[in-house]
Design a protein that fits this description.
Length: 334
């Protein structure tokens, strides 16, 4: 009898102390078991690398359980069905799912959805047309609720979520201001994505440059970073400003993120609302429809950083957490 075909997988094998490292992961080869009735096998084409993965690597209390050790690293995937014993899926279907860091994923069909890869590239379903896009859409429309003429600021502005936030804010008639690391990312945010301004927080004049970029103050802030950037933005918020607290990536390695002036929440009557996009499944269809139309008509642009090959996933994740990515970070397998 022929040997079973092998699947290459990356496991989380240890938990980081402080900064995560590639040694926390291990590449293994495992034989593929035959499909059971109801199962479907997917050849993963792209893995999504996302900041939340750093949190799952820790054994800490959070909104989601930790990634178990010695199991395939979790994560969003897009790919093509290669075998099916599930009547809802046919060989050749393009699907988005959560099949993790491996070349082949096996699923009972739960959380696996067919997507149309004829109008937009398959990879977009992990970015602007997927979880990051919906995150941007919900935080902006569900929490900030922008009005024409208002100023909306977003941090990590050139990234998967931030780039969508600013473009949607601009489309809603707002002044859209990004905060990003480096002149090249800022140039892209303004010249390609059409934001009104972008502050390079690495240039050394964060507070002065932000003040100059928001002459009428800030009405809405989409928070991705935390720390000094949050403190600088809070100091410029207008009365009744809204802050959608989406992420605090500058603290994911355990760095404390003190709030300088919490009294501003009172004196400026601010709303600060944290959210987790998977707790708002009711808005996904509407958000994806809106985002899909904008992407297909090129009104919503996106950029990708692509690492080639499964073995590059750990290094690419760590790079993304340090800002080495420029746009949505993916790993291309096929
Ligand atoms: P990005 O594509 O924006 O990549 C991460 C970016 O974060 C980096 O490129 C870097 O940009 C920035 N960054 C990293 N470290 C720092 C730091 N110390 N200071 C400032 N900026 C830093 O990632 P995503 O778009 O996928 O995610 C953006 C945020 O959204 C994250 O905080 C993530 O956790 C959050 N998120 C939350 C969800 C929710 O449901 N609440 C769902 C999805 C994402 P730069 O070079 O500009 O510094």
């Amino acid at each position: 009898m022929a040997d079973a075909p092998l699947n290459r997988q990356i496991l989380l094998v240890s938990r980081p102390e402080g900064e995560a490292s590639v040694s926390n992961f291990k590449l293994v080869e495992t034989p593929l078991a035959p499909l059971a009735e109801g199962q479907v096998r997917v050849r993963n084409h792209y893995l999504s690398l996302d900041p939340y993965m750093r949190g799952r690597m820790d054994d800490a209390k959070s909104y989601a359980p930790p990634q178990p050790l010695n199991e395939v690293m979790i994560g969003g995937t897009v790919g093509v069905v290669s075998e099916s014993r599930n009547p809802k899926f046919a060989v050749g279907d393009s699907v988005v799912g959560m099949l993790g860091w491996q070349e082949y994923g096996t699923s009972d069909g739960t959380m696996l959805n067919q997507v149309d890869a004829s109008r937009v590239p398959l990879s977009a379903y992990l970015g602007a047309l997927g979880m990051p896009g919906v995150t941007a859409w919900y935080g902006l429309n569900g929490i900030i609720k922008p009005k024409t003429g208002e100023t909306v600021v977003v941090s990590a502005a050139s990234g998967a979520v931030g780039s969508v936030v600013g473009q949607l804010a601009k489309a809603a008639g707002c002044r859209a201001v990004g905060i990003a690391g480096g002149a090249e990312k800022c140039r892209y945010v303004v010249e390609t994505l059409g934001f009104d301004a972008c502050v390079d927080y690495k240039a050394g004049n964060l507070r002065a440059d932000l003040k100059a970029a928001v002459p009428d103050g800030i009405d809405g802030y989409f928070e991705n970073v935390g720390g000094e950037i949050l403190n600088a933005v809070l100091a410029r918020m207008n009365a009744f400003g809204r802050v959608a607290v989406c992420g605090m990536i500058s603290g994911y390695d355990g760095k404390p993120l003190p709030l300088d002036a919490p009294r501003l929440i009172l004196t400026q009557r601010l709303l600060l609302q944290g959210f987790i996009v998977y707790e708002h499944l009711d808005i996904w269809p509407q958000a994806l429809k809106d985002l899909g139309e904008r992407v297909a008509t090129k009104k919503l642009l996106f950029r990708e950083s692509i690492a080639e090959g499964l073995d590059k996933a750990p290094e690419a994740l760590l790079g993304m957490l340090r800002g080495k990515n420029f746009g949505k970070q993916l790993v291309k397998l096929v």
